[in-house]
Amino acid sequence: MENVKTLGEFIIEQQTDFHGSTGEFSSLLSAIRLASKVVNQQVNKAGLMSHILGSAGGTNIQGEDQQKLDVFANNQFIKALTGRKVICGIASEENDEYIPINNDGRYIIAMDPLDGSSNIEVNVSIGTIFSIYHRITPVGQQVRAEDFLQKGSQQVAAGYVIYGSSTMLVYTTGNGVNGFTYDPGIGVYFLSHPDMKFPAQGKVYSMNEGNMNKCSAGVKQYIEYCKHVDSATKRPYTGRYIGSLVADFHRNLIKGGIYMYPATTDSENGKLRLLYECNPLAFIAEQAGGKASDGYRRIMDIEPVNLHQRVPFFTGNTHMVDKLEELIKQEK
Ligand code: P6P
User: Which atom of ligand 1 is nearest to the CA of 244?
Assistant: First the structure.
């Protein structure tokens, strides 16, 4: 394949200008690449591997049944990251507490190893989401909570893997967003989507409208705004909701749109987790020319208070998030 770049080549190229490259960060990304290939292989066989399907019997901090594939994915990422010595700690949706790893490691990672797991058994795209920071506490000591409770603006990298009709790894280190498509035949990711940006005009809105009557007036008004017929602003927009965050986010990144998981009367902070769902996708959204907000504040400016805290999450084209924020702020 003439002049097609692999993820490995790209990582090495990027290493030259990354935060005083010592190769450690490249090693970290390579661990994520490796684990994603192993998880991809199992996800693609989930329908056949009855021992994988079905609940693992445990429940995670969300009180959700842990699908065996959730547990499998979590273990694969932890194993790959532990093996590289560059990580001092891991926070995962599947673990109530953070996991100290190597006291000499300079990076921490927060991850949702397999988001959208309820879609596993209906063969809908699911994903891995990750967020990477430099540690705050001194190298050589055991990692502490403060290493994980950093604002999203402190991320050094963030990304996701989408296990869909094809498997892609999409990530940023703060110099734009690049997407790599996996060729399972040779086990290599190729740079297929260089410098990803939201299209100028978004026309898709993604929300579980079953929650509509539990949302604030501003959110309801925005949904009505999306449905209003107005050719000058290319409305009505199109409603698309897969119910798998990575799949909805990825489609909107490519086609343009807004993803919304608002606060509801059942959950005043919505459903999605700040550390390993909202912050990493917010970093990507901003690097792709978009925006991510809780309706009032930039997601990446929110000071975390605990590992699994939830925040309302609105992300996508800037003009769409701006309009939603305008209607929400009028509520007060
Ligand atoms: P609802 C999946 O469980 C998830 O965390 C996201 O992937 C998805 O966007 C959202 O929840 C779906 O939630 O309440 O619409 O089913």
Answer: 7
Q: Give tens-digit pLDDT for 122-178.
A: 889 999 999 999 999 999 999 999 999 999 999 999 999 999 999 999 999 999 999
Cis geometry, peptide bond prior to residue 194 (ω within 30 degrees of 0): no
Its domain, for residue 275, covers: 204-329
260 vs 3: which has the higher pLDDT? 260
Domain with residue 312: its CATH number is: 3.40.190.80
Answer whether 145's CB lies under 8 Å from 126's CB: no
Residue minimizing CA distance to atom 9 of ligand 1: 245
**pLDDT-derived band at 38, boundaries 50, 70, 90:** very high
pLDDT by residue (tens digit) across 2-29? 578 999 999 988 875 555 556 888 999 9
On whether the pTM is more than 0.85, the answer is yes
Q: Last residue of a domain, which of 167, 193, 219?
A: 193
Domain presence at residue 199: no
Task: Give residue 208's Cα distance to chain centre.
Answer: 18
Query: Starting at the edge strand that comes first in sequence, how are the strands of the sheet with 238-239 ordered?
Result: 238-239, 204-206, 258-261, 313-316, 291-293
In this structure, the strands spanning 107-115 and 87-92 are parallel
Residue after which a domain boundary falls, among 166, 193, 220 = 193
Task: Specify the number of domains making up the chain.
Answer: 2
10 Å CB burial of residue 175 (0-12, 13-18, 19+) is: exposed
Q: Which atom of ligand 1 has the smallest separation from the CA of 248?
A: 9
What is the bridge-based pairing of β-strands 107-115 and 99-100?
unpaired
Q: Can you tell me which residue has the tokens 């917010």?
A: 282
Ligand 1 centroid vs 109 CA: distance in angstroms?
22
Q: How far is the CA of 16 from the centre of ligand 1 (A)?
A: 38
Rg (CA), the chain: 19
Give 48's pLDDT tier (boundaries 50, 70, 90): low
Query: Which H/E stretch holds residue 84?
Result: none
Q: How far apart are CA 128 and CA 69, in angstroms?
A: 12
